[in-house]
Amino acid sequence: MTEHPLREAAQAYLAVVRAHAASMSETELVEALTGLQEARNIQDATETMLLAELSRIEHVWAEDGTLQERRHPFGRQDLGTVDLVAPCIGVSHHVAASRLTDMSRIVRTPLLMEEMAAGRLDRFRASIVADELVDASTEVAHEVVELLVARFTRLGGWVETAGPLRRRTAAVLERVDSTVIAERDAFELRRRGLFRRVESTRLDRWDGVYPVEDSRRAFALVDERARAILAAGGAETLAQARADAHVQLILGQSKVVLHVHVATSSEMAVEPAAGSQGFAGNAIQDVADESVVLHGFGVSGETVVPRSWLQKMVATGEAVRSTDLTCDPVTGALIGGRVPKGLVAHARPVVEGPPRVTGSTERSQAASAAYRPSAELRRLVSLRDGHCRFPGCSVTIRQCDLDHVRPWPTGLTTQGNLMALCRRHHRLKQSPGWQVRLLPDARVEWTDPIGRVRTSWPIDHLGATLPERRPAPPSSAAEPGPLIPARGWHSTLPDLSTEDLPYDMVDHSPLVEWLERLLKEAAADPSLCDPSLIPPRATDAPRPRSWDLTEAPF
């Protein structure tokens, strides 16, 4: 490889530093570092210029069939420039693309390039200034940079770090052209929003962007209540207390009623107790563990909540029992019941076939001569399937079509002939050689062109496919009650379905009592805990123990 002059100079400078760094004074070391940084700034300017020239080049085919180069004005980037640059500077495709973006913004204001070429400004801070001026006109950007250069020349250099430099650039821009800042503020306000995503089965994460004039007052209110909660022992940390205070302030403004739909097996009917305002007397007893699993509680998956919370909601009337949902006893699939609008995300309407027959949007779930399913039937099939019914496909129901298993009009528009399919597998089902069967228990059997049969299972809303629940160990306080069959819950939001978690407990009381006795002996005779009394361990002999473990309960 041919030695580059710049590389030779850098290696020569490194050799000088290696030879004399140990004998240099503190002042000389600082001056050497300052000179090295100035040289690096000049290299950044050189790299920016090389990138700018490289990005101008476009390869085109000439009329004679030869490949020629065409140069465009600065700022234009050829499609392949990024992939040419990335291996040269040893970075990924995305980093190279970011470097080229910075280059195009810096060369827009030649005065920034001059400051870098003089060694006074590094590329990082130059890119900060250029980024703040990206939505300003070229004339305005030139004027802002001139004012910044004049100021830092008086101060003896670019002494401000990234954050203060960004704020100062914006302040100078506001003085030069306030309309740019006004348009930027309007755009920033359009970015406000609150987003929720599932962190785990027990936690949600909220990410919010708010206007500062509202955010800081609201946070002061939350913080004040949070500190009162923390002082009263209601939370372990201030962050936990703020989360509790935030929820209290929101829920304190209105009352949200949870409409709960009990999902029962088609082999057992549960009727509400006479005069009951909420759940049937034996239905609430199903929630017997410390935690319960809710389905459809604002998300398509499962959510775990404390049992005490659900019981409190029922007792206060904030959770009421609505229409029941019937499930298959073997697969737990939803096979009947009225699904309300808030319980399930809708699949996309059927996009193929003849136009919809006019009539009510809430027709019954019985066989229909119409091609398109009613809104009520769509909700039932959507809640039953939850996602695409091709084996292994997890495309959410929001991005699926409801497709007839047996083509219409041979196959009627019923829940026994409809299933959710994404567009890809919707087309695959219609391909030669593929066969599909929807079984009465809502399983879907797919047969591929080579004869393999695969099964897609519906969502188990009943817990029917889970192993049998282990009974809790007998307690001295009360005799264990009779085992109650597992049952799910659904509601509208909130519409949810809940079922108990598998339960298991081990009695550790003998081990705890033994450990407590050992601690008392150690407190009475501290020499038992003296490590110096334990002889060193031999490589071929077991280490002696200072405790008598013959009575240990394990």
Draw up the topology in text.
Layout: H1 5-20, H2 26-56, E1 57-61, E2 67-71, H3 81-89, H4 93-106, H5 110-117, H6 123-132, H7 138-155, H8 162-176, H9 178-190, E3 193-198, E4 204-209, H10 212-231, H11 238-251, E5 258-265, E6 291-295, E7 302-306, H12 307-315, E8 319-321, E9 325-327, E10 334-336, H13 375-385, E11 400-404, E12 418-422, H14 423-429, E13 435-438, E14 444-447, E15 453-456, E16 488-492, E17 495-500, H15 509-524
Parallel strand pairs: 5-8, 5-9, 5-17
Antiparallel strand pairs: 1-2, 3-4, 5-16, 6-7, 6-17, 9-10, 11-12, 13-14, 14-15
Helix pairs in contact: 2-4, 2-5, 3-4, 4-6, 5-7, 6-8, 7-8, 8-9, 10-11
Distance N to C terminus: 70 Å
Shape: extended
Number of helices, where a helix is a run of at least 4 consecutive DSSP H or I residues = 15
Total DSSP E strands: 17
Mean of pLDDT: 75
Structural class: alpha+beta
Question: What is the total domain count?
Answer: 4
* Largest sheet: number of strands, sense, barrel closure: 8 strands, mixed
Tell me the Rg in angstroms.
Answer: 36 Å
Helix content: 25-40%
Q: Uncertain runs with pLDDT below 50, 5 residues or more?
A: 269-288, 350-367, 476-508, 537-554
User: What share of residues are in beta strands?
Assistant: 5-15%
Features of this protein?
single chain; 554 residues; alpha+beta; 4 domains; three-stranded antiparallel beta sheet; 15 helices; 15% strand; HNH_nuc; HNH nuclease domain-containing protein
